[in-house]
Design brief:
globular; Transposase Inhibitor Protein From Tn5, Chain A, domain 1; three-stranded antiparallel beta sheet; 16 helices; 2 domains; alpha+beta; nine-stranded mixed beta sheet
C-alpha cells in the first residue's frame, strides 16, 4: 500500500495494527510555549516598551492595526524562537500565543475584517515596512511612517545594562571586538575584506561581561578600530552619569591598540589592556627569554614560557612610552611570543596574572558574538540600505538582551545558568502547548511529562524576585 503524503495529511509507517496519521489541523496550538518566559522578562523589565519609545510613529491613530510595541514584540520574540526570516511570519501571524504575548487584545484575529480576518498579527510586508522606513519619513509618506532614532537606540542598550544592575559596580570591563558579517548581494556599504576573504560588513561590538552595550554596523573597508573611540566616549559617559565612582577598563585585541584610543583613555582615567601585534623590534627585546624558553621546552618536551616587563614606544605612531607585557613562549617546535599594552600598574596587576587571568578572559566575548550571529541571526543583513540593516542588527541585539536577562536572572542557580541562547531555545522555548483564550485568561496546556515543568516554576519565581513589579 502506498503511503499517502500531502500538505493536509501525512501517513507514517504503522505501529502494529494502528495507522499513524498526522495533520496540521490543531487550530489553537503553539509550538513555542516557552515564549511566556520571554513575556515575563519583557513585562517585568519593560524592555521592549523602552525600545519602542525610540521610534516615532507618523501613522494616523485611528487607522493603526498594529502598534509599534506589538510589531517589535512579534519580530523579536520570533527571533528568540528561531524564526530569522520575515517570510516565517506569513504563518506565525496566526500563532495565538505569539499574538497574546505581543500584546494583542484579540489573540484570535476574529475581530479583524477583510482578508486579515483570523490573522491577529502583522504580515511580513507590514514588518518589512517597519525596517525599510527612511530617516526622513513623515506623516505625508505613503506607506513607511515609523521612524527610529538611531542615537536613542544606541543608548538604549547601555541604559538597559545599567537598569539591570542591582547596585553600582566598582569596576566595569568593556570588551571590544569586530567581526565579519558576510553579505551576498549588492547592499549599500558592500566591500571585499581581504582577511575574511569575502564581501561583508564589519560590525563593532562592545560587551560588559555578557551584557551587550553596542552593536554598530560598519562597512568593511575600514580599520577594525574605526569608530571605537566615539562609542567608548558615549558609553563611558553614560556609565559615569549613572555610577560616578565606577572604574572603567577597556579590553581588546591588537586591532584596537591605536594611539588615539589609548591617549584618550589616559587623559580620561579609563584603563586599557590591548593586544599588541608582534614585530622584529619587540621580539629582539625578549630574544634571551625566548632562547631560554626554547631550551626549557626541548628539555621537558612541554611548552615553556616566562613574562617580561617592558617600557615601549613605537618609532612614529605612539605619542609616549607605555607598559608592555611580553610572553616569551616556546611551544614544541616553534616560538610563540605574545604582547599586550596596558595602562594598569604593576601594583594592581602583575605581568603573569594580567596576561593569563585578565587579558585572556576576553575570549569569552567571542562566544557572545557567536550567540548574536549564529543563534539570534545578527548576520541576516540582506536589506539594501545600511540603515535598514542596522535596525536588523539591533533587533538581533534586542533578542540577545532579552535572552540574556532570562539567563542571568531567570536561570540563576539552575543547570542552564550559563547556557547559550540556542540551548535555551531548544530546552525552554520550543515546547508545544494547547492555547485557550478567554475574556479573562490565556490558558496554556503543556505536556504533563515535560522534563522542565519544575524548572518553569523556578524561573518565574526567580524573575519575580528580581523584578518585583512589572515595569
Amino acid at each position: 500500500m502506498t503511503t499517502e503524503c500531502n500538505a493536509n495529511q501525512i501517513e507514517f509507517e504503522a505501529l502494529g495494527w494502528r495507522r499513524v496519521v498526522a495533520s496540521f489541523d490543531g487550530a489553537r496550538v503553539s509550538s513555542d510555549a516557552g515564549m511566556v518566559l520571554l513575556h515575563e522578562v519583557d513585562r517585568r523589565s519593560g524592555l521592549l516598551a523602552k525600545f519602542a519609545a525610540c521610534f516615532t510613529d507618523h501613522r494616523r491613530p485611528e487607522l493603526i492595526a498594529h502598534e509599534v510595541t506589538e510589531l517589535l514584540r512579534q519580530r523579536v520574540f520570533g527571533l528568540c524562537c528561531g524564526y530569522e526570516d520575515l517570510n516565517d511570519h506569513a504563518t506565525l501571524r496566526d500563532d495565538p500565543l505569539l499574538a497574546a504575548v505581543s500584546g494583542k487584545p484579540d489573540a484570535s484575529g476574529n475581530d479583524r475584517g477583510g482578508r486579515d480576518q483570523g490573522h491577529p498579527l502583522a504580515s511580513p510586508s507590514t514588518l518589512n515596512r517597519l525596517e525599510l522606513t527612511p530617516a526622513d519619513a513623515s506623516a505625508g509618506s505613503r506607506y513607511r511612517k515609523i521612524v527610529y532614532d538611531s542615537a536613542k537606540l544606541a543608548d538604549f542598550f547601555v541604559e538597559a545594562y545599567i537598569a539591570s544592575q542591582v547596585s553600582a559596580p566598582a569596576e566595569v570591563v568593556l570588551d571590544l571586538d569586530a567581526t565579519d558579517d558576510p553579505i551576498h548581494g549588492t547592499q549599500e556599504g558592500r566591500f571585499f575584506h581581504g582577511y575574511y576573504g569575502n564581501y561583508c560588513y564589519l560590525p563593532l561590538y562592545v560587551f560588559a561581561d555578557d551584557f551587550l552595550l553596542c552593536a554598530k554596523l560598519r562597512p568593511s573597508n575600514i580599520d577594525g578600530s574605526a569608530g571605537a573611540l566615539e562609542e567608548v566616549k558615549r558609553i563611558a559617559q553614560k556609565l559615569r552619569d549613572a555610577w560616578p565612582g565606577v572604574r572603567i577598563v577597556l579590553r581588546a585585541d591588537s586591532g584596537f591598540a591605536r594611539d588615539e584610543l589609548m591617549h584618550w583613555c589616559e587623559e580620561n582615567e579609563v584603563d586599557f589592556v590591548f593586544g599588541l601585534a608582534r614585530n622584529t623590534r619587540l621580539q629582539s627585546l625578549i630574544a634571551s627569554e625566548l632562547e631560554a624558553a626554547k631550551v626549557a621546552s626541548e628539555q621537558t618536551q612541554q611548552a615553556a614560557r616566562s613574562y617580561v616587563e617592558l617600557r615601549y614606544c613605537t618609532h612614529k605612531s605612539w605619542s609616549r612610552k607605555r607598559r608592555v607585557i611580553a610572553k616569551a613562549e616556546h611551544v614544541l617546535d616553534k616560538s610563540n611570543p605574545r604582547f599586550v599594552v596596558t595602562s594598569l600598574s604593576e601594583q594592581r596587576w602583575a605581568a603573569k596574572a594580567l596576561y593569563e587571568e585578565f587579558y585572556c578572559a576576553r575570549g569569552d566575548m567571542e562566544n557572545r558574538i557567536k550567540e548574536q550571529q549564529m543563534d539570534l541571526f545578527a548576520d541576516r543583513t540582506s536589506a539594501h540600505t545600511m540603515r535598514a540593516n542596522q535596525l536588523r542588527l539591533w533587533f538581533a541585539s534586542l533578542a540577545y538582551t532579552l535572552m540574556n536577562l532570562l539567563r542571568r536572572f531567570g536561570l540563576e542557580g539552575t543547570e542552564l545558568a550559563r547556557a547559550q541562547a540556542g540551548t535555551i531555545r531548544v530546552r525552554l522555548l520550543k515546547l508545544g502547548a494547547v492555547v485557550r483564550v478567554s475574556v479573562r485568561r490565556v490558558w496554556l496546556s503543556l505536556s504533563a511529562a515535560s522534563p522542565v515543568r519544575e524548572l518553569f516554576a523556578r524561573i518565574v519565581a526567580n524573575l519575580r524576585q528580581r523584578f518585583p513589579k512589572p515595569s
